[in-house]
Amino acid sequence: MKAIKVGLLGIGTVGSGTFHVLSRNQAEIRGRAGRGIEIAMVADLDTARAKSIVGDACEVVDDARKVIANPEIDIVVELIGGYGVAKSLVLEAIAAGKHVVTANKALLAVHGTEIFAAAHAKGVIVAFEAAVAGGIPIIKALREGLTANRIEWIAGIINGTTNFILSEMRSKGLDFGTVLKEAQRLGYAEADPSFDIEGIDAAHKATIMSAIAFGIPVQFEKAHVEGITALQAADIKYAEQLGYRIKLLGIARRREQGVELRVHPTLIPAQRLIANVEGAMNAVVVQADAVGTTLYYGKGAGAEPTASAVVADLVDITRLATADPDHRVPHLAFQPDAMNDTPILPMAEVQTSFYLRLRVADQAGVLSRVTTILAEHDISIDAVLQREAAEGENQTDLIILTHETAEGRMNKALAQMQALPTVLAPIVRLRKEELA
Question: 31, 331, 404, 420: least buried by Cβ within 10 Å?
Answer without folding.
Answer: 31
